[in-house]
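Target chain:
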Amino acid sequence: MTIPSILFYAFFAVTGIQIAYYLSFLFSFSITRAETQLKKHIPISVIICAKNEAENLKKNIPLILNQDYSNFEIVLVNDSSFDDTLETMKAFDAENNNIKLVDVKTNEAFWGNKKYALTLGIKASKHDFLVFTDADCTPNSEQWLAQISSHFSNDKSIVLGYGAYAKKKFSFLNKLIRFETVMTALQYFSYAKMGTPYMGVGRNMAYRKELFFNNCGFNNHMSIKSGDDDLFINEVAKASNTSLCFTTDSFTISEPKTSFKAWILQKRRHISTANFYKLKHQFLLGLFYITNLLFWILGISLLIIGFSWPWIIALIGLRFVIQWLCFGFTAKKFKETDLIILMPILELFLITTQLSIFIANLISKPKHWK
């Protein structure tokens, strides 16, 4: 058997795995409609851990205070900031009786570890139902808290939400960031819908304090700088205790990075936690990425040498049609339709960037969350 033939059969297998993955894991969620639950207005504690975020707090805390919700507190956690974050928090605390301030001093044992600061914030909260977001996150509506909290029940103690990034005109990096965000959301919502949740995003998620302390909080991965959201969810989430909230009113909108250097550093921190996921999630996510990478490498190689090009074009076309359907329906759900036509280009750039990040992380690990 010739080398081109081997490459062709490998490409056929890789494309088959990709198509099967999209049809079995991702298509079901992509066509699922968001449902608005009955608003319950249970007592909620909103936890915001901030490090050097004075300006973002000034912008977003008033929007959270203005939520159409009858019973909630905001726990502001200052994680050893050296800007005006603490002063900004004190100003809000002085003017609002539903704000609680937690000032975390530098701790040598937990230096640069957001999980330590978050744990102190969770301990300080007075309600059992906790909603988490970041200082740079803007609620998409005054119904954000009502939408997220409505998904709690006697059985559901975790709520996974969607954290979008703001659109910036004439920025390829912005489109790449938003594409990666939609693809990540498509995966973690799809896995959760199929009964095997593996992550959430700290920009917009919720869980019960009781669940946190019954599972010893972040103790099992406190030494890992990242993962206050995905590693904890990977550890405790099950089909029976996890609910999904992706109505438009429930989104949060964050400010994206504006330079490739800053974004890559952020992704290096995020990707470094994947090695600590459950083995089944590592296998499935790894299989998807590897076959995605090989799809591009083998497909381009076979087209260049011209081996069985009608078959190659047909397989590429079939895979892209299925991917476009999954991504397109999801992008429409998340109000990111401008990304649909650019999907192949964005995907190629994303998997190339992810490969470089993986190689960089083998050499050295990011040490701080900020």
Summary: Residues 3-30 form the longest helix (28 residues). The chain is about 50% helix and 10% strand.
